[in-house]
Design brief:
By secondary structure, the chain is α/β, with parallel strands linked by helices. The protein is built from twelve helices and eight strands.
Length: 274
């Protein structure tokens, strides 16, 4: 079984991907959704709240697709950055003060409900930033599952003391492991030198074809062993890396397997209570 996820961001965020693209992130996500619909693949898309306010015309067809489950991805994506950097330096909590994180989370939930009429119950923080207040805040606001972080040996929902379930990604992520846009080999070398970055799949980045083969191998291994795969795709990354060529091979495989919305992984008793 495969849980395909995606993270989408408002264009005013001006990410490296966005600055290197000749198309908006949402227009590319819309194209990706059509690829999913053609193959009857389900996906859980985590979308920043500001996207609903600033780019509703492009967001609307994405969130109205029957193949897409909507989740929150913070409202501002941790802007202004300086505030979060200072708070992290002072308290080791990049998410910001409790009241700020609560407000940002609620604002995201509210704008999604206002635009779609849907109450979301899944969440992923931008950059997987999971602070000490995250579980309590999310659970208090009706979120059931948070998908932060990367753990390649985690294949089930993990329930914490608040009752919130955590479900990390267990297939090699795309953005951090693909050479694309500003992430040239030289840029990556400098970045590694400065931050010594690594996740559960190591520190290396690959060209898109190599990465795609790694993804397919991992998906097939999990399927053979009856394990849940939780994967992340950024449509804009797929576009910048090779114009969606490699990801279509991945989708061709995924369409032969069972896909599931993240929210449908909840135990029956939790769904009933909701």
């Amino acid at each position: 079984m495969i849980c395909l996820t995606a993270d989408l961001h408002h264009m005013s965020l001006k990410t490296g991907n966005q600055l290197h693209s000749d198309r908006t992130e949402m227009s590319l996500a819309g194209e990706f959704v059509k690829m999913m619909e053609a193959r009857d693949i389900k996906g859980s898309f985590f979308i920043t709240g500001r996207s609903f306010e600033e780019e509703w015309d492009e967001v609307k067809p994405i969130v109205e697709s029957p193949n897409i489950e909507v989740g929150g991805h913070t409202y501002e994506a941790f802007k202004p950055e300086l505030l979060h950097r200072v708070w992290n330096k002072l308290t080791k909590n990049y998410n910001g003060p409790y009241a700020y994180q609560y407000y940002d989370t609620k604002k995201t939930i509210d704008i999604i409900y206002k635009k779609t009429g849907k109450r979301i119950n899944i969440w992923r923080n931008h950059m997987y930033m999971h602070g000490p207040n995250t579980e309590k805040i999310l659970k208090s606001l009706g979120i059931d599952i948070c998908s932060d972080g990367v753990k390649k040996e985690n294949f089930t929902l993990q329930k914490d003391d608040t009752g919130l379930y955590n479900l990390p990604i267990n297939i090699i992520p795309d953005h951090e492991h693909i050479i694309h846009a500003e992430r040239t080999p030289e840029w990556i070398a400098q970045w590694q030198k400065r931050y010594n970055w690594s996740d559960d799949f190591g520190p290396d980045s690959y060209y898109i074809d190599t990465w795609a083969e790694m993804v397919l191998d991992q998906l097939k291994e999990n399927e053979a062993k009856g394990r849940l795969s939780v994967m992340i795709i950024h449509p804009i990354t797929m576009y910048l890396a090779d114009g969606f060529k490699a990801v279509q091979k991945i989708l061709d495989y995924i369409q032969t397997r069972e896909t599931i919305f993240m929210g449908d992984l909840l135990p029956k008793e939790t769904k009933a209570a909701a």
